[in-house]
Amino acid sequence: PAPLTLLGLESSCDDTGAAVVRTRADGGGEILSNVVISQDDLHAAFGGVVPEIAARAHAEKIDIAVEQALSRAGLRLDQIDAVAVTAGPGLIGGVLSGVMCARGLAAGAGLPLVGVNHLAGHALTPRLTDGLAFPYLMLLVSGGHCQFLIAHGPDRFTRLGGTIDDAPGEAFDKTARLLGLPQPGGPAVEGAARDGDARRFAFPRPLLNRPGCDMSFSGLKTAVLRARDQLLAAQDGLYPQDVNDLSAGFQAAVADVLTEKTRRALAAYLDLQPPAPTIAVAGGVAANDALRSRLSALAAEHGISFVAPPLALCTDNAAMIAWAGLERLRAGLTDDAAVIARPRWPL
Ligand code: KG4
Ligand code: ZN
């Protein structure tokens, strides 16, 4: 088949992205450009993403992101086969900016428009980067989401379980705030944890003894708060070593829970007797090295492959949206002008 080239747009959270991706002969994808305009600076002072600020920044930046993506790819819009856009789930203002922009581009150039579920974008990333074959086990772990999926096809996922409250990325971000570390909290906490002693604080491993793949992370953040306040009551402030040890203890608890629950999800997945069994991760928290090495050890223990996309493709980006759109298009799953913004949209 002739190669397909898609323009993808992503604006569901706090990154404005546009990317151009083309099919490769071996089935994977080639990223011709992947522009991410971060809003971190705008939200930093508020300690979290402010939806109104995010919406306005997406509206201001999305056209610029598209222009950059096309020019870096060295292509004009009329050399693109279709436009893919995140249609949800996410913050409605941002999703709308993307959908409106994509509709305009597609209508103006007479191109098909493909609505993509942001979670499917994350979950299909290992096929873009590694040409992974279905079915594979996916741990999707980000700032807003945490779930185990068996990916059977571009539009077919079985959910095995997930968080019943906070997502781990959110817990990393809250922990960073409690410890006076910068946002986004994940990389900051991971950095501090590198010099910390994970055994100094005994943090809980919520739901670990409960059967199934469901998880909980909100109690963990409360435990960090309590440990911090105990320190503050006993001394004149938090010392760097305290911050490092609290970070290490917190991160170890998250990694323990995610690894043990992955072990359980693996059992359900292996029951399907997949021809090339693989555990894959995606989402911002999949950038965490401590977690990656635990999961890769678990996979090795079972003699199966472990795939973790490069960091820039784990966090929010438009290449994964272009790719997911491309997979939908190849499978004949187009939605044309009916693409509407859906703030809530389970896979
Ligand atoms: O996938 P993502 O970019 O956005 C969505 O939530 O969809 O994920 C962002 C989250 C943030 O909470 C951030 O703190 C977390 O991923 N994160 C990390 C690391 N890098 C980013 N968490 C732990 N360790 C990291 N190295
Ligand atoms: Zn995401």
TrEMBL record:
<dbReference type="InterPro" id="IPR043129">
    <property type="entry name" value="ATPase_NBD"/>
</dbReference>
<dbReference type="InterPro" id="IPR022450">
    <property type="entry name" value="TsaD"/>
</dbReference>
<feature type="binding site">
    <location>
        <position position="186"/>
    </location>
    <ligand>
        <name>substrate</name>
    </ligand>
</feature>
<comment type="function">
    <text>Required for the formation of a threonylcarbamoyl group on adenosine at position 37 (t(6)A37) in tRNAs that read codons beginning with adenine. Is involved in the transfer of the threonylcarbamoyl moiety of threonylcarbamoyl-AMP (TC-AMP) to the N6 group of A37, together with TsaE and TsaB. TsaD likely plays a direct catalytic role in this reaction.</text>
</comment>
<keyword id="KW-0963">Cytoplasm</keyword>
<feature type="binding site">
    <location>
        <position position="118"/>
    </location>
    <ligand>
        <name>Fe cation</name>
    </ligand>
</feature>
<dbReference type="Pfam" id="PF00814">
    <property type="entry name" value="TsaD"/>
</dbReference>
<keyword id="KW-0479">Metal-binding</keyword>
<keyword id="KW-0012">Acyltransferase</keyword>
<feature type="binding site">
    <location>
        <position position="173"/>
    </location>
    <ligand>
        <name>substrate</name>
    </ligand>
</feature>
<keyword id="KW-0819">tRNA processing</keyword>
<feature type="domain" description="Gcp-like">
    <location>
        <begin position="30"/>
        <end position="323"/>
    </location>
</feature>
<keyword id="KW-0808">Transferase</keyword>
<comment type="similarity">
    <text>Belongs to the KAE1 / TsaD family.</text>
</comment>
<keyword id="KW-0408">Iron</keyword>
<dbReference type="InterPro" id="IPR000905">
    <property type="entry name" value="Gcp-like_dom"/>
</dbReference>
<feature type="binding site">
    <location>
        <position position="316"/>
    </location>
    <ligand>
        <name>Fe cation</name>
    </ligand>
</feature>
<feature type="binding site">
    <location>
        <position position="288"/>
    </location>
    <ligand>
        <name>substrate</name>
    </ligand>
</feature>
<feature type="binding site">
    <location>
        <begin position="140"/>
        <end position="144"/>
    </location>
    <ligand>
        <name>substrate</name>
    </ligand>
</feature>
<protein>
    <recommendedName>
        <fullName>tRNA N6-adenosine threonylcarbamoyltransferase</fullName>
        <ecNumber>2.3.1.234</ecNumber>
    </recommendedName>
</protein>
<feature type="binding site">
    <location>
        <position position="122"/>
    </location>
    <ligand>
        <name>Fe cation</name>
    </ligand>
</feature>
<dbReference type="GO" id="GO:0061711">
    <property type="term" value="F:tRNA N(6)-L-threonylcarbamoyladenine synthase activity"/>
</dbReference>
<feature type="binding site">
    <location>
        <position position="190"/>
    </location>
    <ligand>
        <name>substrate</name>
    </ligand>
</feature>
<dbReference type="InterPro" id="IPR017861">
    <property type="entry name" value="KAE1/TsaD"/>
</dbReference>
